[in-house]
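batch job 7 of whatever, protein = Ubiquinone biosynthesis protein COQ4 homolog, mitochondrial
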Amino acid sequence: MSLGRYAPLYPTHVPLNPLQKGAVALLSAAGALLRPARADLVAAVGETTGEWLLPSIRDRMRRDPLGAQILAERPRVTNATIELCRTMPPGSFGAAYARFMGDRRFQADERPPVRFVDDEELAYVMCRAREVHDFWHVLFDCHTNVFGELALKGLEFVQTGLPMTGLAVLGAQYRLPPADRELLQRHYLPWALRAGNRCEDLMSIYYERHFEEDLERVRQEHRIIPAPQPPQHLRFRGPQPPKPPRA
């Protein structure tokens, strides 16, 4: 008899019972510690440790008119989204997003699919959080170096409470040299706490409707505080640990 559920609930679903899911969480966590650039392992940890929080995020979205509309319409962020944003006017949120992705040669389609969430709607919530991550980079002006990624993970933890975001910050910062860790703790993480509490619910923003709008206007509308520039005497230096993946 199979230990898993009887049938997948959505195309990428891998049904697991609690014992199997615990094993995936432990093995993926161990693998992610050894190879932090493995986005698939980090994604597996996020899904197997954070599934219990997804209903609260979903319910919060349901109470918001735009959040409810996102759940009903289920927009996806794909490479076609990037191409659309390339046509947006200069200075717009969409143009800034297209430039962000192009400068780094990022592909919107490269993120790992949701596999271990045992509810089709909650799987979309996890997928949405994963896909709008780069929108947050643009809106909060967070670099994709290790400091920018960790600061944004801290902000995500404030906003969502998902354990993997907090674990990423706790684990990765202690692989930094002491001066760099001081920079993160004194400047970036306090910003993440302040900005995460001040801005609107990031999961209930219909980003696709703002592509043509001026970037600064979008930031003001949603009470977004861009990330600070570190002071010159504390700018990071020396070899850096692998930055958290974009999962």
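notes: Residues 233-241 have pLDDT under 50 and may be disordered.
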